[in-house]
Amino acid sequence: MTSERTYHHGDLRRAVLGAALDAIEQAGPDALSLRDLARRAGVSHAAPAHHFKDRTGLLTAVAAEGFGLFADALAQAPDLQERGVAYVRFAAGHPAHFQVMFRPELLRGDDPGLLAAKERATDELRAGVGGLPGAARGEDARLAGIAAWSLAHGFATLLLSGNLEDPVGGRDPGEVFRGLAGLLFGQQDSGPAATDPQAGTPPTGQDRRTGVDRPTSPESS
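Request: output the structure for the sequence above.
Response:
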């Protein structure tokens, strides 16, 4: 009995998708081939084409699934900064999806499933920007959204390409990103000193987020 006969209902499609994700994580999307996927999944050479038609169709399915998972992750975050944390954690947890999602030249751009999933993800990102105070959004909320997207996407891309191994080390990349976002945008840390009245406050002349001495103005002398 061949391996293909052990699959039923939607399992074969899932098996091919799973094999594609493994292959992309190991060698990137550009090296993907349907013949190799069939071998990985233990199915006939015709099986991937039966479900996805061609390589573009398969990568489109991977991207659509990725954007759906991405939208779910963003929806659970309460504000823009936490959406950035969710963005980074999604990339770290779904590197194969992430590598494909933002490569439009590999995808069938008019695919209904892909378009719907992308729209959901875009709506969640916009909702995060919409939650900012007016002064933080500036005159053009789209530019604020691009700034936030650029920060999270840039961090995630550097992370996946191995360029942040030294500064991140074994730490949770989402926590590292949260600290980075707070540093750049002046948001206070959510640690004990910020939440526990008994923890006290930094003395005058220290930065409340870092505890590092800062120059005091003549008026504070």
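The two ends are 85 Å apart (CA to CA).
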